[in-house]
Amino acid sequence: MKLIVASILVLLTASSIAQCVTVWVPQDQPTIQAGLTVAVSGDTVRISCGSYNEYQINVPSGVFLVSETGLPECVTIDAAKHGPVLICQAGPETTVINGITIANGFSPFVEGAGVRCLSGSDVTLDNCIIRSCETIQVSGGGLYSESGSFVRIHDCRLYGNAAGYRGGGAFFGGSASITDSEFSSNRAGLGAGLFIEDAAELSIDSTHLSGNVAIEGGGGADICGVTSARITSTVVLDNQSLLDGGGLRFSGGTAGLMTDCLIEGNTAGDLGGGIAAFDGTSISLEECLIRRNTAACGGGVACDSSSPSFTKCTLSGNASTNHGGALYCYQAAPSLTQCTLVGNATAGTGTIYCKRYSAPQLEQCIVAFNDGGGAVTCVSSSVPVFTQDCVFACSSSDSLCGSHAENIFTDPLMCGFGAGDYSLCADSPCLPAGNIWEVQMGALGAGCGPCATTVNRSSWGQLKSSYRP
Questions:
Q1: pTM of the model
Q2: Of 434, 454, 460, the residue nearest 446 (C-alpha)
Q3: Could you say which DSSP state residue 244 is in?
Q4: Model confidence at 452, in pLDDT bands (50, 70, 90)?
Q5: Residue 205 is inside which H or E element, if any?
Q6: Angle at the Cα of 425 (from 421 to 431), degrees rounded to 5?
Q7: Backbone angles phi, psi at 461, to 5 degrees
Q8: Using CA atoms, how far apart are residues 236 and 28, in angstroms rounded to an integer?
Q9: What CA–CA distance (Å, rounded) separates 97 from 77?
Q10: Which residues contact 389 (CB under 8 A, 6 or more apart)?
Q11: Which of 40, 113, 246, 313 sits between 20 and 30 A of 7, alpha carbons compared?
């Protein structure tokens, strides 16, 4: 009896294995669509190296669609602007697309010109390229995922895509996990690199957003209504928005955690060169570097009706043409703890500009060596709160408005301000041993031995001229 049962199990296992087959294109089936049509969940459709002029390819749930070598240079699916390229169907199993270039998709009035992931689909793209795909009046130039989908992107490049509405590189309406990927030179109305809306889960790690251009907002990314965002070790570089959020735009109550990120060289025509936070956003940033961004207001960060928090972050070399070289607040209450604001500039007023009942809180921060309009400007009943901060050498004035107590107005003694080293000398008053509160001020601790001399205010103009990002 035991022998019979064992034999049955062996036969069942062999039958199960036999059901998972590999279909070669073009050896077994002449086209990719033909190969996918005969495939079922668990099967692999393996494509020989070459270029394939196909479009509107339906990919069933649970199928593995892979190139011969696993490298995107091996296989290109070129839709030649005749229609969208891949449409991933709903189903309980994970669909995997590996080592493929998806190019020249076109979908003027239906979302998703490169890859469209339908509601209920579970899709992984690994080591793929999506390029030169375009929608006209809708979203998701490179990729579009519907609400209720789950899409994972790993080691992929999405570049040169465009959307007439949102998400030039990609639009995510469902949950998303993005790792080790690049979104560059994409265009859209909102969220040129990425647009993410109401995602139940969002994780972005070790990803680059660069050279993307948005008309309305979110040059690098626009994240709206995501309450559990996790963004780590990500670079947001040289993106542009003609309105708000040159680098990143947060809205719709977005919350979560962003750590160890670089936001650099982004430009906004209106608010927030690096980051613009709107509509109840309360995302937390930790140990991030926000530098060399420009905007009309809020060269580094602009907050409108929002309360993001910044811990151990550095805002340096940012510039505004109107107000708030580092930070602009409108009906906002951001909090900054142990942050460093140095080398920022404004042609208007205020390294920190507070308008219309704004109440930012700065605790144990360094605000020093900033150019234009003084350390802080308060208008329209704004009351910022400064506690145990170091304020020094902000041109025009180091005086504070709002609520301020237990602050120091002396040289923080940085190891190499002119060279961009904002760590502190061993004898800095911003180290715990150097002040009566025994607290750390600023984002960086000791980075060198004692400093022989302090910065002389009379030589401040000379020092500024030597520091330009």
A1: 0.92
A2: 434
A3: B
A4: low
A5: strand 202-205
A6: 110
A7: -60, -40
A8: 44
A9: 12
A10: 362, 363, 364, 365, 366, 367, 404, 407, 408, 441
A11: 40
> Are the C-beta atoms of residues 258 and 248 closer than 8 Å to each other?
no
C-alpha closest to that of 250 among 332, 343, 159: 332
pLDDT tens for each residue of 302-344: 999 999 999 999 999 999 999 999 999 999 999 999 999 999 9
**What single letter denotes the amino acid at residue 31?**
T
Helix H or strand E encompassing 415: strand 414-416
pLDDT tens-digit readout, 28-73: 999 999 999 999 999 999 999 999 999 999 999 999 999 999 999 9
The CATH fold of domain 22-206: Pectate Lyase C-like (2.160.20)
CA 46 to chain centre: 34
Residue where the block lists tokens 């469209």: 116
Half-sphere exposure of 193 (CA within 13 A, CB side): 33
Both structure tokens of 135: 């929608």
d(CA 113, CA 82): 10
- Provide the token pair at 295: 């905007």
**Residues 179, 207: contact at Cβ < 8 Å?**
yes
279 closest CA partner among 325, 226, 203: 226
User: Which residue bears the tokens 């479009």?
Assistant: 55
Q: For residue 252, which phi and psi values (nearest 5 degrees)? A: 65, 35
What whole-number distance in Å separates Cα of residue 375 and Cα of residue 438? 24
Q: Phi and psi dihedrals of 60, rounded to 5?
A: -70, 155
Domain ranges of the chain: 22-206
pLDDT above 90: residue 196: yes
CB 140 within 8 A of CB 168: no
User: Is the confidence at residue 462, as pLDDT, over 90?
Assistant: no
Q: Per-residue pLDDT for 456 more than 80?
A: no
pLDDT band at 455 (very low <50, low <70, confident <90, very high): very low
The identity of residue 205, as a single letter, is D
Residues 6+ apart with CB under 8 A from 46: 22, 23, 24, 25, 66, 67, 68
pLDDT tens digits for 239-267?
999 999 999 999 999 999 999 999 999 99
Q: Which residues pair with 250 in a beta bridge?
A: 223, 277
Q: What is the mean pLDDT of the chain?
A: 93
Distance (Å, rounded) from C-alpha 22 to C-alpha 39? 8
pLDDT tens digits along 204-235 = 999 999 999 999 999 999 999 999 999 999 99
Write the DSSP assignment of 143-203 as a string of letters.
Answer: EEE-TT-EEEEES-EEES-B-SSB-SSEEESSEEEEES-EEES-EEEE-SSEEEES-S-EE
